[in-house]
Model the fold of this input.
Amino acid sequence: MREAIVERKTRETDIYVKVCLDGGEVKIDTGIGFFDHMLTALGKHGGMGLEVRVKGDLEVDCHHTIEDTGIALGQAIREALGDMRGIRRYADCRIPMDEALAECALDISGRAYLVFHAEFTNPACGGYDCCMTEEFMRALAFNAGITLHLGCPYGKNDHHKIEALYKALARALRAAMRVEGTEIPSTKGVL
Done:
């Protein structure tokens, strides 16, 4: 099984992440209802077993909880991928959610990069600041070693736009992490 556990404790957050790239139960508790909803979608649509427990300084705001969860989850995904032997590596996905459309293209390359194009109308969805979507994606990509391009070219409802972005990421990750061979998918012989 391709799985990993990452625990991250700082003065601002106490995080436990367990990921199994080959499936399993999804249990999320971050203290931020909308973020729980997004991580549940990420696990379910990503075909991952995912357990996330977070105690964060929500009395300050949601920033540390969301960004640090992205860091820990990215580290867990990278560890679970191991030497990445046999993975598909590249994938893309487009997800419609009512009036919104999200697009994701990624490369599990070991080289971290984020291109993010999405604009939000409202400051927050529940206790989740919409601007934290980009921060989470950056933390995840940089700690997992993924080149990640995400965009929402249109949509009106911020909930729909953000959820479509998480689901597009999930579906692209699911495809890119799929094992379909035995070789390292690189002409260099290493990722």
